[in-house]
Amino acid sequence: MERVLDADAEAGGARETTSHIARQMAHQLTRRAQFLEMREAAAAREREHADFQRTASLATEQSYVMQQLFHHQQQGQQQARQQAQQQVQREAAEHIAQQAHQQQQQQIQQQQQEQPAPAPKTEPKHRVFLLNCKYCKTFLSNRGQKAVLLLEPHITLYSTDSIPFNCGPLYLPPPVERTCDCITHSLGCYGCGAQVGYHIVAPCSRCTSSVANHRSSNGHRTVLHRSEISIRERRYVPGEPGVLAAPYLPSSTKSLHSGSTTPIPMGVAGVDMTPSAPSPPMNTMMPTFAINSASSSVRTGSRTLRSASVAAWTSPPPVSSHASNGSAVNEPQVSMASGNGEVDKTVDAHLHREPMAPTLRVNGNGANRSSNANMASAHSIGTKAASGPAESTARVIKRGDVLYWADLLPESASEIGKRQVPLDPDLILNQPLAGR
């Protein structure tokens, strides 16, 4: 029995051991399963976290990209708005500038229409003086002009373009030391013998260069000292030769094409031609010169002057269709050439010649225009006179008006520097007018 009991005890022990081992193995398996579950749960969590992070990063990147796109869109829209505003501003500025320019042009046109046209530039007016000897009052010249000495501008002189009639060469030693190398000869008064001036035969290079660089001598070679002469302003005598008293125009447009040269005064074109009192006959009021009328000719310097030439010089101008309105008629000077026969022929040709083509003088500049320019000017002035009151700046010289060098007719080249019979207008102007 003991064996049975021992066998039972051993079998029970074996069973207990086996159950214990089974329990241990089951416990180990349980723990291993738990560990595996935990690993799987951790891996799942890691995967979820990675997925979340990846999703978050993608969302962040997407939001950043969207923000960048939105920012770029805003910048583009802002630039477009700025460009549009700038374009509108430029267009507005251009429109304003265009309007201002148009207004300025309109104002300029209105000012040009309202204001008269500016007068053309004229040459400086130099008065013409009458020159007399200071001591004996002998009349020397009626073509004097105020001048200065080139090398000493503070010295006042009076020059003329023709040798005075009542003075001639004076062969005396010069009273003062010469300042240049000009070839000159002194001039003495025929009345008292006083040395009144000098005549430049040939200017030196120094004076020629001074004239070329600084001023013009106007071709004057005869100089009179201010201390040796008395001066007066030259005034106009109606009918006086050598003076352009008023501009002339053709009578009508028809005469322009027909070749007619009959002049009419500028008064019809709007120039004031107020008639003055009638002047006395010139032949009854002319001064007496120191010329013997009984002799056929008188030698004066290097020229021969005949009584016929003096009569032609002092004779009144021919009566024309407009001589009754008080304006002076322009008569060219007589060309008095040397020689008796030539003088008579020249005088006869002057007294019986046909009317010359008219010349137009504007603003007193004394410039001779061509006949075509006269016709064009006459046509334009006639048109203005027909449409309304014409504005003219042409000078019309009346009796007693002061004469300027621009009013004198230019002499021919052959007559410049030669002796001429002077005319003292004061002797005529001081006499009472006829008819009063």
TrEMBL record:
<feature type="region of interest" description="Disordered">
    <location>
        <begin position="1"/>
        <end position="20"/>
    </location>
</feature>
<comment type="similarity">
    <text>Belongs to the FAM72 family.</text>
</comment>
<dbReference type="InterPro" id="IPR026768">
    <property type="entry name" value="YPEH2ZP"/>
</dbReference>
<feature type="region of interest" description="Disordered">
    <location>
        <begin position="372"/>
        <end position="392"/>
    </location>
</feature>
<dbReference type="Pfam" id="PF14976">
    <property type="entry name" value="YPEH2ZP"/>
</dbReference>
<protein>
    <recommendedName>
        <fullName>Protein FAM72</fullName>
    </recommendedName>
</protein>
<feature type="region of interest" description="Disordered">
    <location>
        <begin position="70"/>
        <end position="123"/>
    </location>
</feature>
<dbReference type="GO" id="GO:0005829">
    <property type="term" value="C:cytosol"/>
</dbReference>
<feature type="compositionally biased region" description="Low complexity">
    <location>
        <begin position="70"/>
        <end position="116"/>
    </location>
</feature>
